[in-house]
Design brief:
This protein has helices at 6-31, 38-60, 64-93, 106-112, 115-124, 141-161, and strands at residues 135-136, 139-140. With 164 residues, it is mainly α.
Length: 164
């Protein structure tokens, strides 16, 4: 099977990442009125990170060792994003009496706390992260985001293992 070039696959991943963020903001936030929780914001940061890595790789178009570095960064970013998707899925699976308390809004968080404290709170998640606001085919939003992180990771592995 003939794969598209290294550059084309990276460009496709960068565009997919951008499309995911546009859909999250334009459709889910603005059209459906869903408010992203702390872990949703964290997952978005990792989707943006993968997009930035892949866009840089597509523009740079390095040799094989550079390709492996970019692919490794993409795999690691997808793995970390997948961790936070898994964390949110775990929170969503908890019985109501075990769900952590809801936190303060993200806007207030960054206005009232230092960057390091705010980021720490974002990474921990809260009770809002346990609420299932949307589902498709039985999977909630973090489930679908997990699927995309797995897809990004698989493409990263393909990019890492391919020969020039």
């Amino acid at each position: 099977m003939m794969l598209p070039s290294y550059r084309i696959l990276n460009l496709a991943q960068a565009l997919a990442s951008a499309a995911l963020i546009v859909v999250a903001i334009a459709y889910f936030e603005n059209f459906l009125g869903l408010e992203p929780c702390y872990l949703c914001m964290t997952q978005r940061a990792f989707v943006i990170g993968i997009g930035a890595i892949c866009a840089t790789a597509a523009l740079h178009n390095p040799g094989q060792s550079g390709q492996r570095i970019y692919a490794g960064l993409s795999i690691a970013t997808a793995g970390l994003g997948g961790y936070f998707s898994g964390k949110q899925l775990w929170l969503q699976s908890l019985p109501e009496d075990q769900v952590p308390a809801c936190g303060i809004p993200v806007e207030y968080l960054f206005d009232s706390f230092s960057i390091s404290e705010a980021i720490g709170m974002l990474l921990r998640g809260d009770g809002n992260c346990a609420e299932i606001q949307w589902q498709l085919l039985g999977l909630s939003m973090p489930g679908w985001v997990m699927v995309t992180f797995v897809g990004f990771a698989v493409l990263g592995v393909v990019q890492f293992l391919r020969k020039s």
